[in-house]
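Listing S7. Sequence submitted for prediction.
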Amino acid sequence: MFFHQDATFEQLSIHRVGNKAQDEFYVLSDEPIDMTQDEVLPDLLMQYFMNPFSKAKEVYRFYHPNEDLQLNEVYYFASQYFDGKIAFHDMSQQLAKHLYEVSEHPKIKAGEVYVVALNNVQLEGEEHQAIGVFKSETKEAYLKVYPNAGGFDLDYEQEAININKLDKGVVIVNTEREEGYKVLVVDQTNQSEAVYWKDDFLKIKARNDNFQQTGNLLKVYKNFVNDKLDENFELESADKIDLLNRSMNYFKTKETFDQGEFEEEVIGNPQAASLFKEYQQNFAEEFDTPFQSNFEIASPAVKKMAASYKSVIKLDKNFHIYVHGKRDYIESGFDEERGLNYYKLYFDTES
C-alpha cells in the first residue's frame, strides 16, 4: 500500500516545540539542514521517519469543522508549498508554530519537530510528492564501545534518539487535494495524552473508502453482537460466536457487501436486523462516518479484523472451546447433581 524504498529527501528542517501550558516556548532554526555532506545520514533518517508507515493501512483526509479546508492550518500550508507559493523552510516554521499553539495539554512532552520534503513516495500504486512532519519526544541513553590501545573503551550519550521508535509522524501525499489529500499517520504515545496530534494539530478523519467501509462494518457488527443483542435477546456465548463466524464467513466469501443480503443471510432475524441498522446509524453520527448499503469488500480490512473476532468460549481456568461453525453441534445445560454448567459437543471424527 505504502512504499518508500525509492523515495528521496529533498529538504529537511528541524525545530523544537515546547508545551505551551507549561510556559515552554518554541525554537525555530534559521536554515534547513544540509544533508549533502553525509552519505549515511539520509538513509538513517529515511529508516527513522518512514519505516513505521510501512504498516499503516488506514488513509486519512484533512477536514475542518466549518467545512472549509482552507481553514485547516496544516492543509493550507502544505497546499501553499505544493503550489510554490511559500518556501519550504518558511512552511516548516509555520507548521512548528501551529503545533506549539495546540500543545496545551499539561502532559504533552516537548520535542524536536522534523519537516521533510519527499519525492517518489508510492501510495496505492502511484508515485507522488509528499511532506512529512515528525516529532521525537522520547529520549534514551546509549552506550558506545570502541577499541582503544589494544583493548576497548566505553562511553555513553544521554538524551539520544532511538531511530527505531518514532513517536509521532504524518505523511501528506500530494494527491486528491480537493478531498483533503491522502494522509498517513503514526502515533505511538498514550492516546489519552496524544489526541491533540490527530484532532488538534492535523484535524483529520478516516477516508471513507472500501477499506474503511469494510473495517467499520465488521467492527460495528462485532460490538453489536457482543454488547447490544443481550439487551433484547437471550444469547449464549456459542450463539454470539456463531453470529460472528457467519459474518466473517460472509466477508471472506463475498466480493461485494449488500446490506439486505447480509441481514438475511447472517443476522436472520428482522427485529435484530432493525436493531443493527439503528446501531449503525448511531455509530455513523458519532464518528461522522456514513455507511453505504453496497460496497466492494476489501480483503486486507477483513484480514485485519479477523484477528479480533474471537471464536473461543473460556470455561473457568480449565477449558477453552474453539468454535468454527456447526452451532447445532453444541448444547449447554446445568447439572443439578454437580451444581455445574456444562457443554455437550457432537462430532464425527477425532484428530
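Caption to Listing S7: primary sequence and predicted C-alpha cells for the chain studied. The two ends are 40 Å apart (CA to CA). The mean pLDDT is 88.
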